[in-house]
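Protein modeling request. Please complete all fields; requests missing the sequence field cannot be processed.
Requester role: graduate student
Desired output: 3D structure, token encoding
Chains: 1
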Amino acid sequence: MTLLIYKFMVDKDFAQLEKDGYFLNLDKRSKEFREYKEWKETPNPDAILWSEVEQRITHKISRQDFKIVCELHAKYFNHKYNEICTCNKKLLRKWIEELSKKLS
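Delivered output (104 residues):
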């Protein structure tokens, strides 16, 4: 039985399992729950990167930070990498707000 559960966990991502509520009724002493807890406590490297970029963004944004915004937005909002036109301030602000909500 536990082998079947472990295979299920390998096939599915912890984030998706968490979203599905899989860990709510799981025995807190189980191996699966300990692995989940370890995953949960590990800091997300993208969130760390985003917090640094967000601190540097003022009324201007560097080219490097702009590329990071585009890469992270493509990754977390499931679309192809696209560098939006920098003249479109409204869309750029929207992307920054969406990333802040998602990664903060």
